[in-house]
Each structure stands twice: as C-alpha cells, then as structure tokens.
Amino acid sequence: MQVLSVTIGLPIPIPILAQAVRAGFPSPADDFIEDEIDLHRLLIANRPATFLVRVAGDSMLLAKLHDGDIAVVDRSLKPRNGDVVVVDVDGERSFKVWRRQGPRVTLHFANPRFPEFQLSPDATIEVWGVVSGSVNPRRRSE
C-alpha cells in the first residue's frame, strides 16, 4: 500500500455541466456549463488529516475501489458501520469494510471471491483512517 501526501496549492477550477448527465438518452441541455468546482474542496474536508492511498489488489471491488485507484483517506473520521477503512491488523495494513454490531467489530473484504476475513481473538487492530472518497482513472496509461 502506497501512501501519498496531499499537496494543495492554488485552486484549480474545473468546469462542471449544469445538469447531471444521464446514463441513457441525452438531453439537449447537457452541454450547458453552469459553474466550476475545485476537486480539492470536493474531495478533502480536513487537509491536515487527509492522505492519498493507492489501492493494490481487488479485495474492495464491490466498494468501487479498484487496483490502481487512489483512495482519499481521512484519519480524523471515526468509522461508521459499512465504511471502508484502512486498518492495521497485527501490523499489516489493508483496506477492509468496517462492521459493528454492539460492541463487536468485524472486518470484511468487498469481493465475494475472497474467503471470509477471520480475526484472531488476540489480534491487534488499529484503524488508520476512513476512506472518504476516491479517484478512479478509467483509462490507464500504457
């Protein structure tokens, strides 16, 4: 797992279309640019506690984190049921889905091809951060 620091310089506004684009038939108004957004503001709520982490492997496919994606991880967030977290289990860092039922916490893969993740009763668990967003490049460089 590769952890990248977040460097924020001047805002880089990017045009955003006025209407959401349908995943079906297009609308004639789809080409109207309404405003601009800054991806730093969109993805990062707490700069000092935010890191970018490159995803390796396919254990989080159903959580929409793919091999090579960049996860936005906020270390100031407390995990909620169903959150994807970066967790250290006995010193090994990985992505897992956090589930809590009362006092019991379980960790899960987000890929049905993986076996159930078993925690030993004496496992040392430390939540390193909560995934608050991601960047998913669709076209990989060759």
Automatic annotation (TrEMBL):
Pfam families hit by this protein: Peptidase_S24 (PF00717)
An MF annotation (GO) of this entry: DNA binding
UniProt-listed GO biological process terms: DNA repair; regulation of DNA-templated transcription; SOS response
Recorded superkingdom: Bacteria
InterPro entries cross-referenced by the UniProt entry: LexA-like, LexA/Signal_pep-like_sf, LexA_repressor, Peptidase_S24_LexA, Peptidase_S24_S26A/B/C
Keywords on record: Autocatalytic cleavage, DNA damage, DNA repair, Hydrolase, SOS response
Ranges of residues in domain Peptidase S24/S26A/S26B/S26C: 15-131
Family: Belongs to the peptidase S24 family.
PANTHER family, alphabetized: LEXA REPRESSOR, LEXA REPRESSOR-RELATED
Name under which the protein is recorded: Peptidase S24/S26A/S26B, conserved region
Organism the protein comes from: Methylorubrum extorquens DSM 13060
